[in-house]
Prior knowledge:
The chain has 385 residues and is mainly beta. The chain has four domains: 1-116, no CATH class; 117-207, no CATH class; 209-271, Thrombin, subunit H, CATH 2.40.10; 290-385, no CATH class. The chain has one helix spanning 3-15, and strands at 27-31, 34-38, 44-50, 52-57, 60-65, 68-72, 78-84, 86-87, 95-99, 102-106, 112-116, 119-125, 128-133, 147-151, 157-163, 178-181, 184-188, 194-199, 215-219, 222-226, 232-238, 240-241, 248-253, 256-261, 266-267, 275-281, 284-289, 292-296, 311-316, 319-324, 327-331, 337-343, 345-346, 353-357, 362-366, 371-374. Strand 34 and strand 35 (362-366) form a beta hairpin. The chain is flat and about 70 Å long. The model is unreliable at 1-8 and 10-22 (pLDDT under 50).
Amino acid sequence: xxxxxxxxxxxxxxxxxxxxxxxxxxxxxxxxxxxxxxxxxxxxxxxxxxxxxxxxxxxxxxxxxxxxxxxxxxxxxxxxxxxxxxxxxxxxxxxxxxxxxxxxxxxxxxxxxxxxxxxxxxxxxxxxxxxxxxxxxxxxxxxxxxxxxxxxxxxxxxxxxxxxxxxxxxxxxxxxxxxxxxxxxxxxxxxxxxxxxxxxxxxxxxxxxxxxxxxxxxxxxxxxxxxxxxxxxxxxxxxxxxxxxxxxxxxxxxxxxxxxxxxxxxxxxxxxxxxxxxxxxxxxxxxxxxxxxxxxxxxxxxxxxxxxxxxxxxxxxxxxxxxxxxxxxxxxxxxxxxxxxxxxxxxxxxxxxxxxxxxxxxxxxxxxxxxxxxxxxxxxxxxxx
Length: 385
């Protein structure tokens, strides 16, 4: 099995979304160029007969046979036969499908919800789907520019295509998306109402992004931050400023640079050497100090001493993937190497299984390091004498 095959499967294994019991879950496998699925015990539930598979979402997994896509459920049963030229994952009981150049929405039973008279871009965010209107002409036959808008879960136009271009809606409702209109960057809400306008300027400057509910805006000579209502959350009084990240931003107050929070209050510089570098998972967050890595709790207390790893990742199912001496293994929450570093490639544990690469091929292992499924061994090639 090629390195590319392993990489594809590892990506699939790492991205499968949690929310179902381990006994009610499917794991993708690959033999040759075909995909199938196993269950938690390693039993093949779906034979390797598909040309591509998607992520588990809302009890459905997208599968592709030849050039057509459909869906199976968590028992491996085909619930929507492969008949679409393309199909997306389900979100909020809706999936985007395409047949030819026509887009539509379906529900998990395959029922048609609505046809969409535009090209669909991406997935739903905050209940809205970005679309692109192309190939239109006015009453004089003049070709109109490509514009962007949004439709809702029922396929109805929520914001008519008008922006050139438009971003997706941020997943954080305290932030706003933006679109280009009449040489302004316009920040708008879910009804399409423009809340904030910022000129692109003569050089058509790129748009600033909302972050932590704040938009960096210049007025005259100074910078400040507006909120999603269009009001000044932090008045424009800084000579220079940066976008917020993790609730903090650097601003130039007079000649001095300081750090402020989202309310404009100055905060002390974080002089701690130990810094969190990843979100919490399984109650611990990855942290770093002087090129050493470790995991801390909510009080920034180390779970065990810092060490040097070639790679380290978040905990899942009580184990964290690490790379030592060019090979992957898994630590427990006491810092012990619970599963020896002996794998050439590896993914994080998900629903108590992890996909790993060995000399013989790829395998799924459980949290004790026992292989519940192995691929057909990789052929060994020998040079002819």
